[in-house]
Amino acid sequence: MVDFSRGDDLSAARFDGTNLRGARFVGADLSGVVMRGVQVENLDIDAPWLPDGDHLLINGVDVIGFVEGELNRRFPGREQRCADTPEGLRAAWLVLQDAWSAAVQRAADLSPAAVEASVDGEWTFAQTLRHLVLATDTWLGRAVLELEQPFHPIGQAMPNADEDGLDLSLFMTERPTYDEVLRVRAERVAMVTDFLADVTAADLAVERRNPWAPQYPETTLSCLQVILEEEWEHLRYALRDLDAIANATNDEGAADE
């Protein structure tokens, strides 16, 4: 198997009759890619960033609207992630945390090992919760509250985060207990809840620095919307993998009968 890493630049490359069957693209920039006469049966695309104004064409049909509508149907409350008023944000956060509470309970109902199980090399359920701790620390603690050192060491960073300016020495190298993950996650949920309780329309309009790209200004509102987006996307990932773990467990049980 040939591996291409972050340092490899294949932009504008042409693949003519190339066999890419079973290839896996993780964190790759495929924007503007053109495919013609390709076999795509069982193709699995996960693209969390499908903004309005762009398009994703399959056989000439823009499918972004279909995808967004179906995701909103599957995840009631997801459509509120773009809320732009104090009241709307509070309601959006409440329904989101109800959804996460159900997911945490589902993971607990599967087995004690389920929260530390990885599917196809993706983050475990516990790691996903740790990443949401980091997302809260970044977009609320660092960007909005402007804390000098907002990061809890339990946070889970993306691979190569150090290349994006995040000091990885701030974070734990050993795996924390799941109880500790739940405790810190609850603290961060409460931090967002407390902030939203008193936020005003004027507060939402205050300009902030993008924590990863200071040259691009944000507002308190856009920072909070990033948190909502992160929460919904990672809930989708987490439930997808819990489905896979449950199905594998059921298959093993059936095989033993």
UniProtKB/TrEMBL annotation:
Pfam families: DinB_2, Pentapeptide
InterPro entries documented for this protein: 5peptide_repeat, DinB-like, DinB/YfiT-like
Domain DinB-like intervals: 96-237
Protein name: DinB-like domain-containing protein
Protein source organism: Micropruina glycogenica
